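The aim of this short unit is practical: by the end, you should be able to scan a pair of folded records and say something sensible about each. We start with the first protein, listed as its amino acid sequence and then its structure tokens.
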Amino acid sequence: MAHRALAVDRAGAAHPVGTCKVVNGTGTIGYRLRLAVANISQIRLQSTDAVLIGTL
């Protein structure tokens, strides 16, 4: 299943960073980070039926 990948900044704004394909619970994504790492609070993977959140 494909998930939309978003980097969420400390102000709560979501910035699209690409798509992550998850198969059997595993997936990877690589992207060029256009925000300072210190300004990112979460990475979200969103699909039509799920949201996965990684908090930094």
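Turning to the second protein, read its sequence before its tokens, just as you did above.
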Amino acid sequence: MSLNLAPDEPAAAQAPTPAAAAAATPTLASALARTARATATATTEARAPLTPSALRAVVRELAEQPDQWIHLVRLSTEERWYQRLVADDDHEVWLISWLPGQSTGFHDHGGSRGAFAVALGELEELSLGGPEQGLLIRRVPAGTARAFGPEYVHDVRNTASGPAVTLHAYSPPLGSMAHYDLRAGGLVRTSEEGPEQW
């Protein structure tokens, strides 16, 4: 599959609203709705968060349907480009592109469960495996999906020579993200951001 991606367009000019994206891609909306219905358990007050394995199923299914999102992808030399595809009460889905050298730095997900699938290209994921394992480095090629619980902290980066495209799902939707520096004694929290910065 060839990548025909538009470079560096301002976010305001390129990002349709989640409702517009869902309306333009009814198959995407219905597939995500089916997956959410099949995996979410409703409570009397609010729906329970989706499990990491349910989120993995969401991003895997979507990664296998590039016709639903490839036309939205942009590349940015300034930083990773991203666009929210779905914003529901119990989960959200993001589309992200990565040029070589772009990374997230170590970060958490504000208590949300999550999963990501590499649809195109290849990424590398760093995490701490505990005192006996130290720093874990995983290669995450196209077709691979990773899922994690609410306390997970990792750094995802494009160390390959070409661009990458990923799909990410979080439940509940992200409310904050803390950033960390990796130092000799472990991870040290350095900052926090909220939805107004995305």
